[in-house]
Specification:
Radius of gyration of chain B: 25 Å
Number of helices of chain B: 15
CATH topology of chain A: Arc Repressor Mutant, subunit A
Largest sheet of chain A: 2 strands, antiparallel
Radius of gyration of chain A: 12 Å
Strand content of chain B: 15-25%
Oligomer: heterodimer
Shape of chain A: globular
Strand order of the largest sheet of chain A: 1-2
Largest interface: A-B, 27 and 31 residues
Structural class of chain A: mainly alpha
CATH class of chain A: Mainly Alpha
CATH architecture of chain A: Orthogonal Bundle
Distance between the termini of chain A: 30 Å
Largest sheet of chain B: 5 strands, mixed
Order of helices and strands of chain A: HHHEEH
Number of helices of chain A: 4
Number of strands of chain A: 2
CATH superfamily of chain A: Winged helix-like DNA-binding domain superfamily/Winged helix DNA-binding domain
Order of helices and strands of chain B: HHHEEEEHEEHEHHHEHEEHHEEHEEEHHH
Strand order of the largest sheet of chain B: 7-8-9-14-15
Chain lengths: 83, 405
């Protein structure tokens, strides 16, 4: 796993989590424009596999979240929110 | 005294001579009493005219980002039996070929781990297992894996590819679509199980222009078998159809969309102007003993179809008019290179939840072709089929009334 990208991804969430908690991969890749797209995507997937991030989906589209936000959402029984 | 029904509105749907899902769920509830809450919740929805499902969240099992669609009741206090009622998508065998043993295995696993209710199959083609708890997801997946099954796609990923029965059962298959579908499914397991794109992407493989898997209407990338040379004609069988009572003029020649067939009733022979044939398959479908697809076979590669939601239905546009059969055999390196570049372009340029076809419409085909380093040619027809739904006025479908014996 690319640790620099991982750190940058956590930085993204730290900054953006104040207003919303679910982000499509595209938003994260666009934000981390200084890094190679493929490497960012690979790192995101690796982080999801490792449990550092969680994937939330309605079945039609997918979002990446911090685990604690994901748990809160599941407990609250949130509805699908497509942007 | 019989217990009063808790679902009087739904019970109305059991009346009449046709099958009823209400009856089916009541039958399922005899073995799995908790499924009765499905009907109880639906009854409440009928009364209140609002839905009581929430969905989202759970996506899969360990290591996967898709394959499971989380579903929850928003009244678990009233309907504890469907408090969690997640859906699992299972990748079906290519061409939907099953042994009895395989079907029984899936059903036994599902009876053990879930509600026992299924869709065979969902719109994309997966086996749909309807209704299980969160706690059962991983054990269910483990049981299915051990039996040789895997999850299908869901979310912003490659959805489960599908193919018609192809050369296994159909004389009209113009290429081995089954092999190609299977190969692509196995090649792109990462893309299938881990969402990584703006939205979903579907492959569909039809063996001939009958397009039994509806690739032209539902696939971001459609493979439709076709031929390049002349339709094969058996004159003796044409005569046999005529002698058997088939009105070849009315039911074949007159129904050709390009009027490229002429029929001589005295000699009982047809002539086909193959340069004007659009591969509608009507004549072949009506006279399968007499007519066959040509010998020089392959497929047309098309792209951009999607069902309505945003801006209506879109049918696939021609990208590569003819790929010869020789190139439609493993390892398909030319196609893998092509699709990798296409995905890269769509991922970079597509908006969130923008289908590939919607991106094509937004930026234009020429932009896509330039990005793919392809020259536009006249055969790249935008809409070989313009409307997925065709409604005929009754007076337009009069036939001669004579059927072939």
């Amino acid at each position: 796993m690319n640790e620099d990208i991982k750190k940058a991804i956590f930085g993204f969430y730290e900054k953006k989590r104040k207003t919303k908690t679910r982000f499509p991969m595209k938003d994260i890749v666009t934000y981390l424009k200084d890094f190679n797209r493929r490497e960012v995507k690979t790192t995101l997937m690796e982080m999801a596999n490792a449990g550092d991030l969680k994937v939330w989906s309605s079945g039609s589209s997918s979002y990446y979240m911090m685990p604690e936000d994901f748990e809160k959402l599941i407990k609250a029984g949130a509805e699908e929110m497509e942007e | 005294m019989a217990e009063e029904s808790k679902t009087p509105l739904l019970d109305e749907l059991e009346k009449g001579p046709w099958p009823s899902f209400v009856t089916d769920i009541k039958m399922a509830a005899k073995r799995k009493p908790e499924t009765m809450d499905l009907l109880n919740q639906l009854e409440l929805s009928y009364e209140e005219k609002i839905g009581h499902w929430k969905h989202g969240g759970i996506v899969g099992v360990m290591g996967y980002g898709g394959g499971v669609i989380g579903r929850y009741s928003d009244r678990p206090d009233l309907f504890p039996g469907v408090k969690d009622f997640h859906t699992l998508r299972v990748n079906m065998p290519t061409g939907w070929f099953y042994t009895t043993k395989a079907l029984r295995t899936i059903c036994d696993i599902w009876d053990k781990r879930g509600s026992g209710m299924t869709n065979f199959h969902g719109s994309t083609g997966d086996i749909i297992l309807l209704g299980t708890d969160t706690d059962q997801l991983q054990p269910l997946f483990d049981d299915l894996s051990e039996a040789g099954f895997d999850l299908g796609g869901s979310g912003s990923d490659l959805r489960t590819p599908s193919a018609c029965c192809g050369p296994a059962r159909c004389e009209w298959a113009c290429f081995d679509n089954l092999q190609m579908c299977y190969d692509m499914t196995m090649e792109y397991q990462m893309e299938l199980h881990r969402p990584m794109w703006p939205y979903k992407f579907k492959f569909k493989f039809s063996g001939c222009p009958n397009d039994c898997v509806a690739a032209v209407a539902r696939a971001d990338m459609s493979f439709i078998g076709t031929w390049r040379d002349d339709i094969q004609v058996n004159d003796d069988e044409i005569a046999a159809y005529a002698e058997g009572g088939l009105d070849i003029q009315a039911d074949v020649a007159d129904n050709c969309p390009t009027k490229c067939i002429s029929y001589d009733a005295s000699s009982k022979k047809i002539k086909i102007d193959n340069s004007n044939c659009v591969r509608c398959m009507h004549c072949i479908n009506v006279m399968p003993k007499a007519l066959k697809p040509g010998k020089e076979r392959g497929c047309t590669l098309m792209a951009g179809a999607k069902a309505p939601i945003l801006m209506g239905a879109r049918l696939s546009s021609v990208i590569v008019p003819f790929v010869p059969k020789e190139k439609l055999e493993p390892p398909y390196e030319w196609f893998k290179d092509f699709i990798d570049r296409l995905w890269e372009w769509w991922d970079e340029n597509g908006k969130f939840r923008e289908r590939f076809g919607e991106l094509l419409d937004r930026v234009g085909m020429r932009v896509f072709l330039k990005a793919m380093d392809m020259e536009p040619i006249p055969q790249m027809i935008e809409a070989p089929r313009t409307n997925p739904f065709v409604f005929w006025w009754p007076e337009d479908v009069e036939t001669s009334g004579k059927e072939a014996k």
